Protein backbone atom coordinates (compact mmCIF):
# COMPACT_ATOMS: atom_id res chain seq x y z
CA UNK A 1 0.00 0.00 0.00
CA UNK A 2 1.39 3.40 -0.99
CA UNK A 3 1.76 5.90 1.89
CA UNK A 4 -0.70 8.84 1.60
CA UNK A 5 2.13 11.39 1.31
CA UNK A 6 3.71 9.52 -1.59
CA UNK A 7 0.33 9.12 -3.28
CA UNK A 8 -0.34 12.86 -2.90
CA UNK A 9 3.04 13.74 -4.42
CA UNK A 10 2.35 11.49 -7.37
CA UNK A 11 -1.07 13.02 -7.98
CA UNK A 12 0.53 16.48 -7.93
CA UNK A 13 2.96 15.26 -10.57
CA UNK A 14 0.10 13.94 -12.69
CA UNK A 15 -1.66 17.31 -12.45
CA UNK A 16 1.53 18.99 -13.67
CA UNK A 17 1.65 16.61 -16.63
CA UNK A 18 -1.98 17.42 -17.41
CA UNK A 19 -1.42 21.18 -17.35
CA UNK A 20 1.50 20.86 -19.78
CA UNK A 21 -0.78 19.16 -22.30
CA UNK A 22 -3.03 22.23 -22.55
CA UNK A 23 -2.34 25.34 -24.65
CA UNK A 24 -3.21 28.32 -22.45
CA UNK A 25 -2.29 30.98 -25.02
CA UNK A 26 -4.80 33.09 -26.93
CA UNK A 27 -3.98 31.03 -30.02
CA UNK A 28 -6.17 28.37 -28.44
CA UNK A 29 -9.71 28.63 -29.79
CA UNK A 30 -11.01 27.19 -26.55
CA UNK A 31 -9.80 30.34 -24.74
CA UNK A 32 -10.23 32.91 -27.49
CA UNK A 33 -13.14 31.75 -29.60
CA UNK A 34 -13.83 33.61 -32.82
CA UNK A 35 -16.39 32.79 -35.45
CA UNK A 36 -15.10 31.52 -38.76
CA UNK A 37 -17.76 32.33 -41.36
CA UNK A 38 -17.28 29.12 -43.32
CA UNK A 39 -16.62 26.57 -40.61
CA UNK A 40 -18.72 27.87 -37.72
CA UNK A 41 -22.49 27.69 -37.43
CA UNK A 42 -23.90 30.24 -35.01
CA UNK A 43 -27.06 29.13 -33.21
CA UNK A 44 -29.31 32.01 -32.19
CA UNK A 45 -32.28 32.51 -29.85
CA UNK A 46 -31.97 29.13 -28.16
CA UNK A 47 -31.45 28.10 -24.55
CA UNK A 48 -28.24 26.04 -24.01
CA UNK A 49 -29.92 24.13 -21.20
CA UNK A 50 -32.78 23.01 -23.43
CA UNK A 51 -30.42 22.02 -26.25
CA UNK A 52 -28.40 19.99 -23.72
CA UNK A 53 -31.58 18.27 -22.55
CA UNK A 54 -32.64 17.33 -26.08
CA UNK A 55 -29.22 16.19 -27.31
CA UNK A 56 -27.60 14.67 -24.24
CA UNK A 57 -30.42 13.55 -21.97
CA UNK A 58 -33.11 12.56 -24.47
CA UNK A 59 -30.73 11.47 -27.23
CA UNK A 60 -32.62 13.30 -29.96
CA UNK A 61 -31.40 14.36 -33.39
CA UNK A 62 -31.84 18.05 -34.10
CA UNK A 63 -32.27 19.86 -37.40
CA UNK A 64 -31.06 23.31 -38.44
CA UNK A 65 -33.26 26.23 -39.43
CA UNK A 66 -31.74 28.89 -41.71
CA UNK A 67 -32.65 32.51 -41.19
CA UNK A 68 -35.42 33.91 -43.31
CA UNK A 69 -34.12 35.87 -46.27
CA UNK A 70 -36.22 38.67 -47.74
CA UNK A 71 -37.02 38.29 -51.39
CA UNK A 72 -35.27 40.83 -53.64
CA UNK A 73 -35.80 41.94 -57.20
CA UNK A 74 -32.71 39.98 -58.21
CA UNK A 75 -33.17 36.53 -56.73
CA UNK A 76 -29.79 35.42 -58.09
CA UNK A 77 -27.86 38.12 -56.19
CA UNK A 78 -25.61 36.66 -53.49
CA UNK A 79 -26.70 37.11 -49.92
CA UNK A 80 -24.06 38.84 -47.83
CA UNK A 81 -23.47 36.93 -44.66
CA UNK A 82 -23.57 39.06 -41.57
CA UNK A 83 -20.52 39.15 -39.39
CA UNK A 84 -20.75 38.19 -35.76
CA UNK A 85 -20.74 41.89 -34.87
CA UNK A 86 -23.97 42.35 -36.86
CA UNK A 87 -25.85 39.87 -34.70
CA UNK A 88 -27.81 40.82 -31.64
CA UNK A 89 -25.64 40.15 -28.58
CA UNK A 90 -26.46 36.86 -26.90
CA UNK A 91 -28.31 37.35 -23.61
CA UNK A 92 -26.63 36.74 -20.28
CA UNK A 93 -27.50 33.49 -18.58
CA UNK A 94 -30.48 33.88 -16.26
CA UNK A 95 -32.36 31.03 -14.53
CA UNK A 96 -35.82 30.33 -15.91
CA UNK A 97 -38.75 27.96 -15.58
CA UNK A 98 -38.98 25.59 -18.53
CA UNK A 99 -42.77 25.88 -18.51
CA UNK A 100 -42.45 29.56 -19.46
CA UNK A 101 -40.36 29.00 -22.59
CA UNK A 102 -41.56 29.64 -26.12
CA UNK A 103 -42.13 26.60 -28.33
CA UNK A 104 -39.05 27.27 -30.47
CA UNK A 105 -36.85 26.81 -27.40
CA UNK A 106 -38.06 23.25 -26.82
CA UNK A 107 -38.62 21.92 -30.35
CA UNK A 108 -36.15 19.83 -32.35
CA UNK A 109 -34.87 22.67 -34.52
CA UNK A 110 -31.82 24.86 -33.99
CA UNK A 111 -32.26 28.38 -35.30
CA UNK A 112 -29.20 29.78 -37.06
CA UNK A 113 -27.95 33.14 -38.30
CA UNK A 114 -27.21 31.77 -41.78
CA UNK A 115 -29.07 32.02 -45.07
CA UNK A 116 -30.03 28.60 -46.51
CA UNK A 117 -27.23 28.31 -49.07
CA UNK A 118 -24.56 29.48 -46.66
CA UNK A 119 -25.86 27.19 -43.90
CA UNK A 120 -25.66 24.15 -46.18
CA UNK A 121 -22.13 25.13 -47.28
CA UNK A 122 -20.93 25.52 -43.69
CA UNK A 123 -22.45 22.24 -42.55
CA UNK A 124 -20.93 20.36 -45.50
CA UNK A 125 -17.55 21.91 -44.73
CA UNK A 126 -17.78 20.96 -41.06
CA UNK A 127 -18.82 17.39 -41.86
CA UNK A 128 -15.90 16.99 -44.28
CA UNK A 129 -13.36 18.45 -41.86
CA UNK A 130 -14.65 16.38 -38.94
CA UNK A 131 -14.35 13.16 -40.95
CA UNK A 132 -10.84 14.12 -42.05
CA UNK A 133 -9.71 14.65 -38.44
CA UNK A 134 -11.16 11.29 -37.43
CA UNK A 135 -9.35 9.57 -40.31
CA UNK A 136 -6.01 11.27 -39.60
CA UNK A 137 -6.02 11.47 -35.79
CA UNK A 138 -8.65 9.01 -34.66
CA UNK A 139 -10.49 11.58 -32.51
CA UNK A 140 -13.65 13.59 -32.95
CA UNK A 141 -13.07 17.36 -33.23
CA UNK A 142 -16.64 18.50 -33.89
CA UNK A 143 -18.40 19.99 -30.87
CA UNK A 144 -21.51 21.95 -30.09
CA UNK A 145 -20.46 24.53 -27.52
CA UNK A 146 -23.13 25.44 -25.00
CA UNK A 147 -22.73 28.68 -23.09
CA UNK A 148 -19.62 30.81 -22.97
CA UNK A 149 -17.66 32.92 -20.54
CA UNK A 150 -16.79 36.48 -21.58
CA UNK A 151 -13.74 37.57 -19.62
CA UNK A 152 -10.80 39.95 -19.54
CA UNK A 153 -7.37 39.34 -18.06
CA UNK A 154 -7.32 42.28 -15.66
CA UNK A 155 -9.76 44.80 -14.26
CA UNK A 156 -8.04 47.53 -16.28
CA UNK A 157 -8.22 45.68 -19.60
CA UNK A 158 -10.93 46.60 -22.09
CA UNK A 159 -10.14 43.63 -24.31
CA UNK A 160 -12.56 40.79 -23.75
CA UNK A 161 -12.30 37.19 -24.86
CA UNK A 162 -14.85 34.43 -24.92
CA UNK A 163 -14.39 30.79 -24.06
CA UNK A 164 -16.90 27.96 -24.52
CA UNK A 165 -18.08 26.33 -21.31
CA UNK A 166 -19.63 22.98 -22.24
CA UNK A 167 -18.42 21.08 -25.30
CA UNK A 168 -20.75 18.35 -26.52
CA UNK A 169 -19.12 15.96 -29.03
CA UNK A 170 -21.48 15.65 -31.98
CA UNK A 171 -21.74 14.28 -35.48
CA UNK A 172 -23.52 15.54 -38.58
CA UNK A 173 -25.44 13.34 -40.97
CA UNK A 174 -28.00 13.52 -43.73
CA UNK A 175 -29.92 10.88 -45.62
CA UNK A 176 -29.36 12.32 -49.07
CA UNK A 177 -27.44 15.06 -50.86
CA UNK A 178 -30.60 17.15 -50.99
CA UNK A 179 -31.69 16.33 -47.48
CA UNK A 180 -30.97 18.66 -44.60
CA UNK A 181 -28.31 17.89 -42.01
CA UNK A 182 -29.15 16.61 -38.57
CA UNK A 183 -26.95 16.70 -35.50
CA UNK A 184 -26.74 14.26 -32.63
CA UNK A 185 -24.46 13.69 -29.66
CA UNK A 186 -21.86 10.95 -29.94
CA UNK A 187 -21.00 8.48 -27.20
CA UNK A 188 -17.82 10.42 -26.37
CA UNK A 189 -17.60 12.21 -23.06
CA UNK A 190 -19.16 15.63 -22.62
CA UNK A 191 -16.38 18.08 -21.76
CA UNK A 192 -16.15 21.11 -19.52
CA UNK A 193 -13.61 23.24 -21.41
CA UNK A 194 -10.33 21.85 -19.97
CA UNK A 195 -8.23 24.78 -21.18
CA UNK A 196 -10.56 27.21 -19.42
CA UNK A 197 -10.52 25.14 -16.23
CA UNK A 198 -6.72 25.28 -16.08
CA UNK A 199 -6.51 28.92 -17.18
CA UNK A 200 -8.90 30.10 -14.46
CA UNK A 201 -7.30 27.93 -11.79
CA UNK A 202 -3.80 29.10 -12.61
CA UNK A 203 -4.45 32.80 -13.19
CA UNK A 204 -7.44 33.62 -10.99
CA UNK A 205 -7.66 30.78 -8.43
CA UNK A 206 -11.18 30.12 -9.74
CA UNK A 207 -12.49 26.57 -9.73
CA UNK A 208 -15.16 25.77 -12.28
CA UNK A 209 -17.94 23.40 -11.26
CA UNK A 210 -18.31 20.00 -12.87
CA UNK A 211 -21.23 18.03 -14.22
CA UNK A 212 -22.04 14.37 -13.55
CA UNK A 213 -20.45 11.71 -15.74
CA UNK A 214 -22.47 10.85 -18.83
CA UNK A 215 -23.40 7.49 -17.28
CA UNK A 216 -24.90 9.28 -14.27
CA UNK A 217 -26.89 11.91 -16.14
CA UNK A 218 -30.63 11.45 -15.79
CA UNK A 219 -33.34 13.04 -17.88
CA UNK A 220 -34.41 15.32 -15.04
CA UNK A 221 -30.91 16.81 -14.66
CA UNK A 222 -30.96 20.56 -15.33
CA UNK A 223 -27.71 22.00 -16.71
CA UNK A 224 -28.87 25.41 -15.48
CA UNK A 225 -27.33 24.31 -12.17
CA UNK A 226 -23.93 24.31 -13.86
CA UNK A 227 -24.34 27.73 -15.48
CA UNK A 228 -25.58 29.21 -12.21
CA UNK A 229 -22.56 27.76 -10.39
CA UNK A 230 -20.19 29.22 -13.03
CA UNK A 231 -21.84 32.63 -12.62
CA UNK A 232 -21.32 32.38 -8.88
CA UNK A 233 -17.69 31.25 -9.26
CA UNK A 234 -16.78 34.31 -11.35
CA UNK A 235 -18.99 36.80 -9.51
CA UNK A 236 -16.01 38.67 -8.06
CA UNK A 237 -14.89 39.55 -11.58
CA UNK A 238 -17.26 42.45 -12.08
CA UNK A 239 -17.37 42.57 -15.88
CA UNK A 240 -17.27 38.86 -16.62
CA UNK A 241 -20.45 37.39 -18.09
CA UNK A 242 -21.87 33.92 -18.69
CA UNK A 243 -23.63 34.11 -22.06
CA UNK A 244 -26.24 31.92 -23.76
CA UNK A 245 -24.07 31.44 -26.84
CA UNK A 246 -24.16 28.25 -28.90
CA UNK A 247 -21.78 27.37 -31.73
CA UNK A 248 -21.12 24.34 -33.88
CA UNK A 249 -17.40 24.31 -34.60
CA UNK A 250 -14.18 22.34 -34.69
CA UNK A 251 -11.89 22.42 -31.68
CA UNK A 252 -8.32 21.18 -31.75
CA UNK A 253 -7.79 18.88 -28.79
CA UNK A 254 -5.05 16.63 -30.16
CA UNK A 255 -3.61 16.14 -26.66
CA UNK A 256 -6.98 15.88 -24.95
CA UNK A 257 -6.96 12.09 -25.22
CA UNK A 258 -3.75 11.96 -23.15
CA UNK A 259 -5.17 14.55 -20.76
CA UNK A 260 -8.35 12.51 -20.20
CA UNK A 261 -6.35 9.29 -19.83
CA UNK A 262 -4.30 10.86 -17.04
CA UNK A 263 -7.45 12.20 -15.43
CA UNK A 264 -9.21 8.83 -15.47
CA UNK A 265 -6.21 6.73 -14.46
CA UNK A 266 -4.33 8.92 -11.98
CA UNK A 267 -5.24 6.83 -8.93
CA UNK A 268 -4.43 3.56 -10.72
CA UNK A 269 -1.05 4.97 -11.76
CA UNK A 270 -0.33 6.10 -8.22
CA UNK A 271 -1.14 2.64 -6.86
CA UNK A 272 1.26 0.89 -9.23
CA UNK A 273 4.66 0.07 -7.81
What would you say this structure looks like, in words?
The chain has helices at 4-20, 48-57, 116-137, 194-204, 224-233, 256-271; strands at residues 40-43, 62-65, 109-111, 142-151, 161-173, 182-185, 191-192, 241-250. The chain contains 6 helices and 8 strands, in the order H-E-H-E-E-H-E-E-E-E-H-H-E-H. It has 273 residues and is of the alpha+beta class. The radius of gyration is 20 Å and the shape is globular. The relative contact order is 0.22.
Brief overview:
The chain is an alpha+beta fold. The chain is 32% helix and 18% strand.
The profile of the biggest β sheet is:
8 strands, mixed
What is the radius of gyration computed over CA atoms, rounded to a whole number of angstroms? Answer: 20 Å
Helix content: 25-40%
Overall SS class:
alpha+beta
Q: What string, H for helix and E for strand, traces the elements in order?
A: HEHEEHEEEEHHEH
Q: Averaging pLDDT over every residue, what do you get?
A: 87
Low-confidence stretches: 73-82
Number of strands: 8
Count of alpha/pi helices = 6
First-last Cα distance: 9 Å
Strand content: 15-25%
Which outline best applies?
globular
